[in-house]
Each structure stands twice: as C-alpha cells, then as structure tokens.
Amino acid sequence: MLSSTEGQEVVLRGEGERILVVEDEEGVRGLVAHTLRELGYVVVEASQATAALDIHASCGGEIDLVLTDIVMPGMSGPEMVVELHKRQRNLPVLYMSGHTHETMLRYGIPESGIPLVQKPFDIQRLAMQVRQALGACKN
Length: 139
Description:
By secondary structure, this protein is α/β, with parallel strands linked by helices. It is globular. The N and C termini lie far apart (30 Å). The longest helix is centred in the C-terminal third of the chain and has 16 residues, at 123-138. The strands form two sheets. A five-stranded parallel beta sheet has the order 3-2-4-5-6, sandwiched between helices. Strands 1-7 form a two-stranded parallel ribbon. It has a single domain (16-138), classed as Rossmann fold, CATH 3.40.50.2300. Helix 2 (49-58) runs parallel beside helix 3. It has helices at residues 26-38, 49-58, 77-87, 101-106, 109-112, 123-138, and strands at 2-3, 18-22, 42-46, 65-69, 93-97, 116-118, 121-122. Helix 1 links the parallel strand 2 and strand 3. Helices cover 43% and strands 19% of the residues.
C-alpha cells in the first residue's frame, strides 16, 4: 500500500541490509518487497508469522530488520516479535498497519516503543522509517 510521491527523489537508500518482510496480504507484501529491493535492500518475504520464525532460524540471525504487519491470521506481528527478540534481542522491528488506532491499542503498539508506519504510506516515508530503524540499531 504505497502511495505515489511524484516529483520527490528517494535518497534514503539501503546498503544491502537484509530485511524480513512479514505480511499476509500477497499484493501488499510483493509491493513492499519490490520497493525495498529497488532501494538497495536484500528482502526475504514471509506470508505469516510462523514462516517468518522459520526463515529467521534458517538465516542464522542474519536479518537486519523485520518489517511486519500487526494483524495477521494465527500469530500476530507483536507475538512474533516477542519470539524473535528471544532469539535476537536487539533485532530492529518496524510495524506496518492499516488498522485503526483502537486496534493498535488492543495490540499494545503505542506502549511497545516499536515504530509504526501507517498504511497507505509513500516510498519516501517507508525509506525514511526503514533507515531510522536500522540506524537506531547501530547507535
């Protein structure tokens, strides 16, 4: 769910960092993954939280950032993040969601301290928030 930013140049490019994109909606996942690849990231995709946990295990902790939906069938994004942080304590996470503020409250998102990019988002906003999340990990 990216919106157009015609006339704006995206300058916040990746440097080959590996991002795990977890999103149950195939079209959204594909678009986000494609955009991140165009920005210079290596992208691994998962359609559900349990698959993301398996991918993380198979990558041996070589994931630099998890970009995940919050509300998904089965295990939610926040539940998955708890499991991932047991394995890789300082793994940066960026949530994405198109749900209402009330839904975010139900999932404890404001209290989690994990940044959220609200759908629909434009390429510039996504690029900026990904760079910030990756930069926060290095500080």
